[in-house]
Design goal:
Keywords: DNA-binding, Repressor, Transcription, Transcription regulation. It comes from Luteococcus japonicus. One of its GO terms (molecular function) is DNA-binding transcription factor activity. It is built from 13 helices and 12 strands. It is of the alpha/beta class and 335 residues long. The N and C termini lie far apart (77 Å).
Length: 335
C-alpha cells in the first residue's frame, strides 16, 4: 500500500519548512512567505497529490470547515441549482464543504434543519431560496455567521444576496428601445412573485425615460400562457412590434403564437425573454436577461468565507448584476 503523502514531503520537494507549507495551504501566507515560495509549495502539493488533514486542521482551529445550507426546495428540485453549485465551488477552493438540507418549504423543517446543522458545528449558515422571497430567520440561525441567498429578511437583521431584478427589467426594455421599438407589450408574470414586481419597475423606468408606449398584459410563467396571451395580443389590427416576456418559457409560447399567425421573428416581431434558460433560450436564438444564479451563489459563499476570516458581513440586500444576453430575436421594427 502506498504511503500517505504528508506535509513533510511537500516541504522537502518545495525546499521550504513544514510551517511554511501549513501557512500557504491554510491561506495565511501573505506577507509572511514570499510569492516564489508560495508558488513552490502549491506546485509541490499538486505534484504529490497532497491534501491537508481536514480532521486535524479542524481540531487545531476549532472549526469544521463546513457551511450549513438550508434550502426551501432547491436541493430536491430542478431550478436554482446553479446557486448551490456556485457556492460549492467557491467554498471548495478554500477547503470548505457545503452540507445542505431541503425543507420542502416547511417552516418547522427549516427550524429543525438549522438546529441539526448547528449541532454538527457548521462554521456558518446559508439559507437559499428557489425563488426570490422574504424569509424570517429563526433566532438560532441568527446566532451563527449567516447569510440569505435569493431571499431577504424583512426586518433587515441579516444580509441577502439577490439578483438585480430591476436592472434586468430595465435592460430588457432598453434592448427593444435601442432597436427602435416604440410599441411594446410586456407579458408579465403573476403578482405574488416578488421578482415580477421588481422587473416591472425597471421596465417602467426605461419606458418613462424614452417616451415610448408600453402595454402590460398579465400572463404567467409557462409556455401555454405565452401561446394563449401572445396570440391574443398579436391577432389585432395594430399589434405590438415587440414583446417582452416574463421568462423564457413564456417567450417560447410567443414564438409559437407568432408562427401560427404567420409572423417572423425578428423580421415582423421582436421578442425578449428572462432567465437565459439553457433548455429554451439558446435553441430559440432568444435575446434574454441572465438570471445570475451561479454568480449569486459564488458571491454568497465568498462573503461567508470572508466573515469566517474576520471581515464584517454587509447588511441589507446585496444585488448581483443581471446581464443582457443578445441573440437573434431582436431587430429594428419594419418601417
Amino acid at each position: 500500500m502506498a504511503r500517505r503523502v504528508t506535509s513533510h514531503d511537500v516541504a522537502a520537494l518545495a525546499g521550504v519548512s513544514r510551517s511554511a507549507v501549513s501557512l500557504v495551504l491554510n491561506g495565511r501566507a501573505e506577507g509572511v512567505i514570499s510569492a516564489e515560495n508560495q508558488a513552490a509549495v502549491r506546485a509541490a502539493a499538486k505534484e504529490l497529490g497532497y491534501r491537508p488533514n481536514g480532521i486535524a486542521r479542524s481540531l487545531r482551529n476549532a472549526a469544521t470547515h463546513t457551511i450549513g445550507v438550508i434550502t426551501d426546495s432547491i436541493a430536491s428540485g430542478t431550478y436554482g441549482g446553479a446557486m448551490i453549485s456556485g457556492a460549492t465551488d467557491v467554498a471548495a477552493r478554500k477547503g470548505y464543504l457545503l452540507l445542505a438540507i431541503d425543507s420542502h418549504q416547511d417552516r418547522e423543517l427549516e427550524v429543525e434543519a438549522v438546529d441539526m446543522l448547528r449541532a454538527r458545528q457548521c462554521d456558518a449558515l446559508l439559507f437559499a431560496a428557489e425563488g426570490l422571497h422574504s424569509w424570517q430567520p429563526p433566532e438560532s440561525f441568527l446566532a451563527e455567521k449567516c447569510l440569505l441567498l435569493n431571499a431577504f429578511d424583512p426586518q433587515g437583521r441579516v444580509a441577502g444576496v439577490v439578483g438585480d431584478e430591476e436592472v434586468g427589467g430595465r435592460r430588457a426594455t432598453e434592448l427593444l428601445l435601442e432597436a427602435g421599438h416604440r410599441r411594446i407589450t410586456y407579458l408579465t408574470g403573476t403578482d405574488e412573485v416578488i421578482a415580477n414586481g421588481r422587473r416591472i419597475t425597471g421596465h417602467r423606468e426605461a419606458i418613462e425615460r424614452s417616451g415610448a408606449h408600453s402595454t402590460l398584459v398579465p400572463c404567467g410563467w409557462e409556455i401555454d400562457a405565452g401561446l394563449e396571451t401572445g396570440t391574443r395580443v398579436l391577432d389585432v389590427a395594430e399589434p405590438p412590434t415587440a414583446i417582452m416576456c416574463a421568462n423564457d418559457r413564456v417567450a417560447a409560447g410567443v414564438f409559437l403564437a407568432a408562427a401560427r399567425l404567420g409572423l417572423r421573428i425578428p423580421e415582423d416581431l421582436s421578442v425578449v425573454g428572462y432567465d437565459d434558460d439553457p433548455n429554451v433560450a439558446p435553441q430559440l436564438g432568444l435575446s434574454t436577461v441572465l438570471l445570475p444564479h451561479r454568480a449569486m451563489g459564488e458571491r454568497a459563499a465568498s462573503l461567508l468565507l470572508e466573515a469566517l476570516d474576520g471581515k464584517e458581513l454587509p447588511t441589507g440586500e446585496i444585488p448581483v448584476d443581471s446581464p443582457m444576453v443578445r441573440r437573434e430575436s431582436v431587430a429594428a421594427p419594419r418601417s
